[in-house]
Amino acid sequence: MATVESIMGVPPAVAVPGQPASRKPSATEPTSPEARSSAGGPQGETRIFLSRANWALYEKLLEAIGDGHVRVTYDRGSLELMAPLYEHDAYARSFGLFVDRLAVEFEIPYQCGGTTTFRKRAAERGLEADECFWIKNVAKILGKKTIDLEIDPPPDLAVEIDITKSSLNRLEIYAALGVAEVWRFDGESLFVYHLKDGQYVLASQSLAFPILPLGEFTEILKKSTIVDRLQLSHIFNDWLRTRVVPLWKQAQGGGQQSSS
């Protein structure tokens, strides 16, 4: 895989996530585009931030990284690379499992986009969600092998695992891309955002799954690194059957109700 420095033409002191720099740069070495590396999060995480990075560099990095386990976020000249931790991915996979079970149980057509890169050149923004789903607009993307946000709808729901803080405001990027709903989880709490007039507002229920008791959902999600996947699936399925399905039936009979 091509490295950041080989694409940028900057000295090899700037490391690819997961590969520490071999030496410290001297005061006279060039730094354009400006780059810095951060390991301020949990052990094992590396973030690289580049300023003055143009769109062409962003696209070159995406091409070089390919399907590598590196997330690239771009916001109008600022670019960040991040290698997700185990904890990060464990929560993301749980979201995928849970949304799948909800959609199947209630026969809601959907499509999963996983960590697909979404970008809009006109907005000069791009990122990969930790998980994402088309629900309302699923029929518009069926049969497609690639998604182009210049002509295709963005996901209706995106999941953002925020265990460690990004240097960039990823919610603003989701808003620029037109994602209607974002679930952000910080390891303890789940925050649901709805897009209104180009900005996100905090909400008490989900657009995609309005009957979902978010507090209870979060408590199960937090077990992602405590129990194995089989046990987690059983816990979620039992909760879905005994708690959520009755709420759904009640909503069908007497109008939608929210629950927290």
Quick structural overview:
By secondary structure, the chain is of the alpha+beta class.
List keywords for this structure.
single chain; 260 residues; alpha+beta; tt1808, chain A; six-stranded antiparallel sheet; disordered N terminus; disordered C terminus
What features would you describe in this structure?
This protein is of the alpha+beta class and 260 residues long. It has a domain at 86-249: tt1808, chain A (Alpha-Beta Complex). The protein has six helices and twelve strands. The strands form two sheets. Strands 1-2-4-3-7-6 form a six-stranded antiparallel beta sheet, with helices on both faces. The longest helix has 26 residues, at 229-254.
Question: What is the CATH C-level name of one domain?
Answer: Alpha Beta
In which range does the helix fraction lie?
A: 25-40%
Low-confidence stretches: 1-33, 255-260
What's the pLDDT, averaged over the residues? 84
Give Rg in angstroms.
20 Å
What oligomeric state do the depicted chains represent? single chain
| Helix-and-strand structural type | alpha+beta
Beta-strand level of the residues, as a percent range? Answer: 15-25%
Biggest pleated sheet: 6 strands, antiparallel
Query: What is CATH's topology name of one domain?
Result: tt1808, chain A
Biggest sheet strand order reads 1-2-4-3-7-6
Could you outline the blueprint of secondary structure elements for this entry?
Blueprint: H1 4-8, E1 35-38, E2 47-50, H2 55-65, E3 71-75, E4 78-82, H3 86-105, E5 111-112, E6 117-120, E7 125-128, E8 131-134, E9 157-161, H4 170-177, E10 181-185, E11 190-196, E12 199-203, H5 214-221, H6 229-254
Parallel strand pairs: 9-10
Antiparallel strand pairs: 1-2, 2-4, 3-4, 3-7, 5-8, 6-7, 8-9, 10-11, 11-12
